[in-house]
Amino acid sequence: MLVEHVAAQQGFELVVPAEAGVLTVGSSLVPGTISIRRDDADYLLIGVDLPLVAAALLQEFSTGNDQFVRAAEEGELYRIIGRAFQLCGSLPDSPLRTFELETNGLPKTTEADRLVVQRIGQDIFRKALESYWDRGCPITGVKDAALLRASHIIPWSESTEAQRLDVYNGLLLVAHLDAAFDKHLMTILPSGAVMFSSRLSGPALAILNPGSGALHVQIARGHAPYLERHQTRFAELESA
């Protein structure tokens, strides 16, 4: 298995000197390095030096090993390293650092100036969400970019600068689900289960959830504080 070739294909094209038996690679495009080694059972163990990325990979590719993600074959390695690349470029605080670099020195005195800076931040945020959610709506699987909305869970106007660029404070949803979430006609529970409002009409609910089945989003621990606030407002409106 050409591990180095797989890593390069997935964006980690820089080989970093490391101990014998370990391949460590980095990227010119995203922060962090990936370390790959074989264990005694001939599995490939993949580690990341960014704690948030490492935790997210373990959550998504759980193997029972609390330190490394394991891959048994090339296809599996390809998926894991590709996902690591996405996460390295989208998890905090990579988008914030990109925003600070791109807006450093820009004027922010007039309303027009602030709108320019806001647009830069929103574009960076969308790119980060597209990377994190694999360019698709996590509920429907739709990947048509024109139909997807990059939305904040806590609105831009109510967020700190760091929260505005935090990928955990966002969802990439198809437009009709985005509208429902924005108006608290739907929320996402700590389990990732999608809950719709009793205030929705029958026709609206049929469009939002055509199969009437249980819908689920794979969320991370980082989403919890943002979704908790959304759930609280949802519950208030349900009981009003």
Task: Using brief descriptors, characterize the structure shown.
240 residues; five-stranded antiparallel beta sheet; single chain
In a nutshell, what does this entry contain?
The chain has nine helices and nine strands.
* Tally of alpha and pi helices: 9
The class by helix and strand makeup works out as alpha+beta
Specify the overall morphology: globular
Report the end-to-end length measured between terminal Cα atoms: 60 Å
**What integer value in Å does the Rg equal?**
20 Å
Please indicate the percent range of residues in DSSP E strands (runs of 2 or more).
15-25%
Task: Summarize the helices and strands and which ones pair or pack.
Layout: H1 3-9, E1 14-16, E2 22-26, E3 33-38, E4 44-48, H2 51-60, E5 69-71, H3 74-90, H4 94-103, H5 111-132, E6 148-152, H6 161-164, E7 170-174, H7 175-182, E8 186-188, E9 194-196, H8 202-208, H9 224-239
Antiparallel strand pairs: 1-2, 2-3, 3-4, 4-5, 6-7, 8-9
General description of the model:
With 240 residues, the chain is of the alpha+beta class. It has nine helices and nine strands. Strands 1-2-3-4-5 form a five-stranded antiparallel beta sheet. It has a two-stranded antiparallel sheet with strand order 6-7. The protein has a two-stranded antiparallel sheet with strand order 8-9. Helix 2 (51-60) packs across helix 3 (74-90). The protein is globular, with a radius of gyration of 20 Å. The termini are far apart. The model has no long low-confidence stretch (mean pLDDT 93).
